Amino acid sequence: MDNQGVEHLVARLRAIGRDDERIEAKTCATTLSADVWETVSAFANTDGGTLLLGLDEREGFEPCPSFDLDRVLSQFVEGMGDGGGHGGRLTHPPQYRPTTAVVDGIPILAVDIAENAVGLKPCYITRRAVHGGSYKRVGDKDLRLSMTEIFEMQTATMISEADRRVVDDVQIDDLDETLVDRYVEAHAGSRALAGIDQGDRAAALRRLNVTAPGGGVRFAALLTMGRYPQQHFPQMLIDVAVHPYPDRATARSSTRFVDRRLCEGPLADMVDQAVETVARNLRTYSTVEGTGRVDQLEVPREVLREAVANAVLHREYSPPFQGQPISVDVFPDRIEVASPGGLWGGKTVATLANGQSRCRNATLLQILRKLPLSGKPGSVVEGNGTGVEFMRNQMSAQALPEPHYRAAPDLVTLTLGRHATEFPENRTWLAAVAHRDLTRHEQIVAMMARQFPVLTVELVRDMLQLDSDDVRSVLADLTHDGVLRKDPDGWRRTNAEPMAGKRRARPSPDTVLDVLSPSDARSIREIAELTGLSVGTLRPLLKRLVDDGRISPTAPPTSKHRRYVRASPPPRG
Length: 573
Known about the structure:
The chain has 573 residues and is α+β, with helices and mostly antiparallel strands. Helix content is 33%, strand content 18%. The protein is flat, with a radius of gyration of 30 Å. The N and C termini lie far apart (75 Å). Mean pLDDT is 86; it is low at 496-504. Residues 20-144 form the Schlafen AlbA-2 domain. This is Schlafen AlbA-2 domain-containing protein. Residues 489-509, 548-573 are annotated as: Disordered. InterPro entries: RecG_C_sf (IPR038475), Schlafen_AlbA_2_dom (IPR007421), Schlafen_AlbA_2_dom_sf (IPR038461), WH-like_DNA-bd_sf (IPR036388), WH_DNA-bd_sf (IPR036390).
């Protein structure tokens, strides 16, 4: 990082008045404080970050005149284990890069801390041991990792044995015989049962991982084929809750849930129950196909099933997590599916859709791939790594935001956006803040601004699968219309008050006609600059004028060279 980059970070801290999730300032005039190592651990275990040593937060992030840069740098290098001493302060120390910078004429030390790779987490303060010295970064704070978070980091590359273990007090009679028969029949004639006599059911069940060599029932078989798995594991269920407002805790109503269901039974039944419960609380839209009408859920049913099935397959089933259900929360503007356990096998949010299938629960995957569904074709999961891309394509086809993942060390949450613009409260808000009819993408981006604290081109592009230039155009139009405001770090929902809930007058066609002539062709951007109208406002207005024959386009609608001229009046008699 160069000096200009450091100055930018300092300016950011001064603007917001505190540290943030990626930047931590500490005075450390002559000696490193003990909490420096907590921050290094937190950055290494989260997303990396930058330490700014020699800045005094209490004095508005002013540089400390007495800062001894050489001494502090030596202490830091030695603490990282690179000083030639008897070892550093940390186990699994991260990669780092120190930079000397000058702020307001006084030198400080900037240290970029890299995130540790999977398999090298957690980074922890050695003398406090792993459970007392492991930290994560949350906002501007360094918080201790929980036991489950540490467990997930330590096992992030290890195939879980939880689904293979034999469950005490469970006998073969605790399994649904019909499901077992269906599973065995699905392997008829396959290599899986090669060499086993057709009548040797016990051998077949051992080969197919239903039972262990000693005859005990495996955990994965109980979950998928058990008559009632919750007898032994009461929290191995899916908790579906439908909330009346966009947040869980609200003072607007004493009603906590509109609908709620604890989905129990074997995994396939749980998935079916969860999907049906969510579906009955979504809106249905009718579309015309051919000569008939087709009813469609606002969020495709196939996406709901894929989301819930993925949570069932990829969740953590090890003992520390067996008291935690999968949760599905339905809000007016979104659906959240939370799965216990972190991402596994080196997967990150950025690589979830790369087509590479990785699953910590290998035995469970083996069963779910082959166990036929009751009364319908297919199985619960395919396990070929295409589920996330499938959901993206389905959501994009409905002009819905792209599925959004958040990954904590011990919890993965998938958010599916709904057609929030259809709800009365949101329609009222959109009508109040916009003085025109917004396009579908503009409506979705406006609603995203109510959900996310800040919008960036990258976030909107990834969620809506739009070209970056199209995203910038939408953001610019919404900013021009006062729906959004542009800040240094992105776009935010405007704080401006709506015009008493009344829509402003629509722009007159004469406003456009006045800046056009039959000879000088102008682009939509040029017309916007001349009229003061946004591009989004102009698009329907220009279309109407073209349809009326009052202006003429110079190129097809998809051409980037499209211009407009005023139509010449017809010659007189």
